[in-house]
TrEMBL record:
CDD domains: ArsC_ArsC. Keywords: Oxidoreductase. This is Arsenate reductase family protein. Pfam families: ArsC (PF03960).
Length: 121
């Protein structure tokens, strides 16, 4: 399993603490430093079963500068959103855990982290 984190994020630190407490085998990706490509973002979205606007932190300054709240949330705009996430990784919701079974979760709660752990067994 891999977890995309921002070390400054309390939800990311909580997820790591829980993974460690459960003895999980995982890899950390500091996605602000090791920025995902548009193709990696597409793959994670497919695993999540979500659209790019579903994992976009629209309250961030970058989102406001880009005017994301006015962008259409439709299939024809999907690539534009993905390109924005790749260019501005701070906009990606965190943490994201990709499980060995091919799925992924946005692990902002203990329940979501435990859900990801259950997919590893």
């Amino acid at each position: 399993m891999e977890i995309w984190i921002n070390p400054a994020c309390s939800k990311c630190r909580s997820a790591l603490t829980l993974l460690d407490a459960e003895g999980a085998d995982y890899t950390v990706r500091r996605y602000l430093e090791d920025v995902p490509t548009p193709d990696e973002i597409r793959a994670v979205l497919d695993r999540l079963g979500l659209e790019p606007w579903d994992i976009t932190r629209t309250g961030e300054a970058d989102a406001k500068e880009l005017g994301l709240k006015d962008w259409p949330k439709e299939a024809g705009s999907r690539d534009r959103w993905i390109e924005a996430l790749a260019a501005h990784p701070k906009l990606i919701q965190r943490p994201i855990i990709t499980a060995e079974d091919g799925t992924a979760v946005v692990a902002r709660t203990e329940e979501a982290v435990r859900d990801a752990l259950s997919r590893e067994k």
